[in-house]
């Protein structure tokens, strides 16, 4: 049975509020009483023993209540508000909402604010509709924000584009809470009319920010435009600057970017009100093996953060930020979205409750929905020309280009001095990169070279590439690179490894080339095999799919690759190749004799 669902503000209807009053006064029995609980009070940041009376999916009262149809004994364990992720790209987990719910509801997550930027880049607003509709098929609360930068910049080709008119209409959808991360900060600062029309379309609603690398006057100007939050702080100083500027600080701890340890000292010292923990991008392995928001709680406590404050960062704070009224706390009138923890260090979840009904216990959903998911919105979103071949991977003989430096556990990249490279050089840890446009059949291909991936043989390719989600392929052998790209076309998108002309590993992601409806255990098995083979071929990235996915994001410093070529984020323009002066070189060589 599905728990009751309410609108975003979650205030009980009049007749139920009147019943809450009668239960609180002891005039009527509750539906459920959770007795003998240690209540985690995120309002006062204290813990106290009490019984919690619930009726109609809401908390009626807390105290010495025992009159109810159903009594649940908490056994002295910690009753906490359910956990909410205020900013997550579900596509990064490569799971549909029901598979994500299977994985995360048993760990205490009761709601997520999905930013379906990836689906929308491929499918347009249909991707947002799919995310919301698929979310309704699960007990998990799946809210969403409207992507603001589709595509992320004009220097890449996505499957769709979203302008102010569509944003305005999408903001009226049930479950849409506001405008998603405004990544195009140059457009904000330079008063680009397209960007500002989108900001204006979201007037009166939350506007998420994305201020990677901004500080000083540029950060101040960005905030002055009406932005409310940022999740790109990577240091204590950046975090403090954002809080001082009045932003809500989203402290990111994902799979490709981990910022909690660096920012924890600030959270410890000041316990800011306008702060929360978010995952942003987290892969299937991490979710299944380590957890979701419960993992963030463990990391927070490990870094010295008070556990009750840590829970507030994952419950009341995100609810307040997104104006999810009557959520995020164990208090009268609030939604009975609760989690029972064994302790406040390991945060092992005994059960998760949504709207007064226990939906998960002992690591499993009580009733798993194995019915067919909503129809796949796109059967095959990979469109390549028949003539796309190895010739597209050959850089110009006379072009000298900078080399991208890839960092593990980070989504930013560095750059090395320009070189005239034509082929991968594994002895120098240099692999060839290519990004191929896959939405409109042009096959336009940008080529570059990268250091830090570690690959010594074969090729890796995938259709997950933020944010336009064209194909990216990294390889040592050009023929293997071409085979990998063609295999992606055959399976409808995903991730592929090729060695010596043979498919060595494959993960099929048939929904927009981004997600799968396979059972989480099957997805984990495929991801494990993929990562194992990647390591055998020399790849040194802990999360190869996740890291490769960020090598095309044109709003994160400093050098990225798109289907149009290398892109310098600091200068916010495509890299103009230096032209090798072969005459001068020949003269220099002659002078050596």
Offer a quick outline of the entry:
This protein is an alpha/beta fold and 593 residues long.
The share of residues in helices is 25-40%
Low-confidence stretches: 1-8, 583-593
Proper CATH architecture of the largest domain: Alpha-Beta Barrel
What count of helical segments does DSSP give? 18
Q: Please outline the major beta sheet.
A: 9 strands, mixed
Distance between the termini: 86 Å
Q: Under the CATH scheme, which class of the largest domain?
A: Alpha Beta
Describe the model:
The chain is α/β, with parallel strands linked by helices and 593 residues long. It folds into two domains: 86-325, TIM Barrel (Alpha-Beta Barrel), CATH 3.20.20.140; 390-579, no CATH class. 27% of the residues lie in helices and 27% in strands. It is built from 18 helices and 29 strands. Strands 1, 2, 3, 4, 5, 14, 15, 16 and 17 form a nine-stranded mixed sheet that branches. 55% of the residues are buried. Mean pLDDT is 92; it is low at 1-8 and 583-593.
């Amino acid at each position: 049975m599905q728990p009751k669902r309410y609108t975003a503000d979650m205030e009980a209807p009049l007749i139920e509020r009147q019943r809450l009053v009668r239960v609180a006064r002891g005039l009527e029995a509750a539906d459920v009483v959770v007795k003998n609980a240690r209540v985690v009070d995120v309002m006062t940041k204290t813990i106290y023993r009490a019984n919690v009376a619930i009726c109609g999916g809401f908390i009626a009262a807390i105290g010495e209540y025992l009159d109810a149809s159903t009594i649940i004994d908490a056994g002295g364990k910690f009753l906490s508000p359910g956990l909410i992720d205020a900013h997550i790209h579900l596509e990064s987990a490569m799971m549909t909402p029901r598979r994500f719910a299977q994985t995360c509801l048993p760990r205490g997550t009761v709601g997520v604010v999905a930013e379906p930027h990836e689906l929308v880049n491929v499918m347009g607003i249909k991707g947002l509709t799919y995310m919301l509709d698929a979310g309704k098929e699960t007990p998990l609360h799946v809210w969403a924000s409207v992507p603001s930068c589709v595509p992320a910049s004009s220097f890449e080709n996505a499957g769709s584009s979203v302008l102010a008119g569509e944003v305005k209409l999408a903001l009226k959808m049930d479950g849409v809470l506001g405008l998603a991360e405004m990544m195009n900060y140059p457009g904000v600062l330079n008063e680009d009319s397209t960007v500002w029309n989108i900001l204006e379309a979201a007037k009166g609603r939350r506007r998420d920010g994305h201020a990677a690398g901004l500080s000083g006057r540029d950060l101040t100007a960005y905030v002055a435009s009406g932005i409310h939050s940022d999740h790109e702080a990577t240091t204590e100083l950046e975090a403090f600057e954002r809080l001082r500027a009045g932003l809500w600080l989203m402290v990111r701890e994902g799979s490709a970017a981990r910022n909690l340890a660096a920012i924890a000292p600030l959270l410890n010292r000041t316990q800011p009100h306008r702060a929360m923990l978010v995952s942003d991008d987290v892969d299937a392995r991490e979710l299944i093996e380590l957890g979701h928001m419960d993992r963030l709680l463990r990391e927070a406590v490990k870094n010295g953060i008070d556990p009750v404050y840590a829970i507030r960062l994952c419950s009341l704070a995100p609810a307040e930020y997104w104006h999810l009224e009557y959520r995020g706390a164990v208090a009268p009138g609030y939604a009975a979205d609760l989690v029972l923890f064994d302790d406040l260090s390991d945060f092992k979840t005994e059960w998760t409750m949504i709207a007064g009904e226990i939906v998960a216990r002992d690591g499993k959903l009580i009733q798993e929905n194995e019915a067919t998911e909503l129809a796949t919105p796109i059967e095959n979103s990979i469109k390549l020309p028949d003539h796309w071949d190895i010739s597209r991977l050959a850089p110009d003989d006379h072009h000298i280009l900078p080399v991208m430096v890839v960092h593990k556990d980070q989504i930013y990249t560095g750059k090395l001095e320009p070189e005239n490279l034509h082929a991968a050089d594994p002895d120098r840890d240099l692999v060839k990169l290519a990004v191929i446009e896959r939405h409109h059949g042009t096959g336009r291909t940008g080529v570059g070279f990268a250091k830090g991936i570690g690959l010594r043989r074969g090729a890796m390719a995938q259709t997950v590439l933020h944010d336009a989600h064209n194909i990216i392929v990294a390889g040592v052998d050009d023929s293997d690179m071409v085979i990998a790209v063609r295999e992606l076309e055959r399976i409808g998108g995903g991730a592929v490894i090729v060695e010596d002309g043979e498919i060595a590993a494959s993960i099929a992601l048939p929904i927009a080339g981004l997600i799968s409806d396979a059972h989480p255990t099957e997805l984990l098995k495929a991801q494990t095999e993929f990562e194992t083979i990647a390591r055998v071929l020399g790849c040194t990235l802990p999360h190869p799919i996740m890291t490769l996915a960020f090598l095309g994001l044109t709003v994160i410093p400093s050098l990225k690759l798109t289907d149009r070529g290398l892109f310098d984020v600091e200068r916010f323009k495509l890299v103009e190749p230096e032209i090798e002066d072969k005459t001068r070189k020949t003269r220099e060589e002659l002078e050596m004799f």
